[in-house]
Amino acid sequence: MASIETFNVAVPDSQLEQLTQKLEHTNFPDELDEAGWAYGAPLADIKRLTKYWQEQYDWRKAEAAINELPNHRTPIDVDGFGTLNIHFIHQKSPVEGAIPLLFCHGWPGSFLEVTKILPLLSSSTTPSFHIIAPSLPNYGFSSGVTKRGFSLPQYAETCHKLMLKLGYPQYVTQGGDWGCMITRIMSLLYPSHVRAAHINMIRGHAPTLFSNPLLYLQHKFSPYNAREKGAADRSNWMLKEGSGYRMQQATKPQTLGYSLSDSPVGLLAWIYEKLHDWTDNYPWTNDEILTWVSIYWHSTSGPAATLRIYYEAAKDSGFGRDRSELYIPTVKLGLSHFPKEITVVPKAYGRTMGPVVFESEKEKGGHFAAWECPDELVSDLRVMFGKGGGAEGVVDGRSGYGVEKGRAKL
Predict the structure, then answer these.
(1) Which residue of the set 90, 367, 380, 401 is catalytic?
(2) Phi (first) and psi of residue 329, to 5 degrees
(3) Residue 168 falls in the annotated catalytic set
(4) Contact at 8 Å (CB) between 173 and 197?
(5) Half-sphere exposure of 188 toward its Cβ, with a 13 Å CA cutoff?
(6) Among this protein's residues, is 396 annotated catalytic?
(7) Catalytic: which of 177, 277, 316, 380?
(8) Alpha-carbon Rg of the chain, whole angstroms?
């Protein structure tokens, strides 16, 4: 396809040598006795990971594994912001009628999150999917943005134009973190193209008697289950003890960016804290942690650029975070509730976000569902889009089961 090229990650040796030097000259802070996780990432953990990064971690091995994926890059014109080179994974299914699915990551994730579900969703098991997982602008191996005001609508525009360029005029989406909000804005802006959306970070609001009387009454008189009973504790913990990062990134991202761009250990600690706090006792390996962090350290635009989405979305009064949480009537919606998401809400809250056609509640799992619980996420998508599912057949000519009779191939 014109102007779409295969892409290989190739971090220069000089960049790896500079990283080694920086790690060797790290100045670690002190730490209070028995601090644990109360003050942030523990010193012993960061020293251990730094030593491993210096002496054992092999970026070239990780890079080679990334390059085994179907990586591509293509220029996308974004209105008012010029042309951005967008890196993306495009894993095509052997099933002709596979459903095009856009997988959208957030922070501090990356395109890497899709890798565990790629072989599951794109296999010949039906319904099957063509998977498209971009590095968002400012992230991974996509271009950075040089002008102010690149907010959720521009991320949505980039992803939508990518899907059109790949020959998918109709498609479905899956997102968590910023990926949830971006795909929600895509549903709002491009409802004739986004045929259904599935999200695993649910940020709805309590139904009111005036906005949705039936849902309000159901919520008022239905007892909470175990997950819903723990929702307030988890959400309150996040608000009181885990949300400082968001205020900093949404108000003064540039100031924080100097530290994250200059200190690999500072970047490691900043991200590692979230990998620990936002998951459900997931057993992170040293290599997993350092590969996630290395994607940021070696990214095209650097770690500071990834923070700016917080600032821009907070300043956007029309299509920012708040709008993504409100009702969008035109696109079918699927919800997967995980108990250790960074904010946990009762089912009724999620149902205020749109016409819910699929919903599941999990006993385990946190913020990075595709990485922590890939089988659970894949199962939900197959039920939602499979035969008898609430979003069965939403994409014309692409049911996930082969080419439908009487319909043209796209």
Answers:
(1) 367
(2) -80, -15
(3) no
(4) yes
(5) 22
(6) no
(7) 177
(8) 21
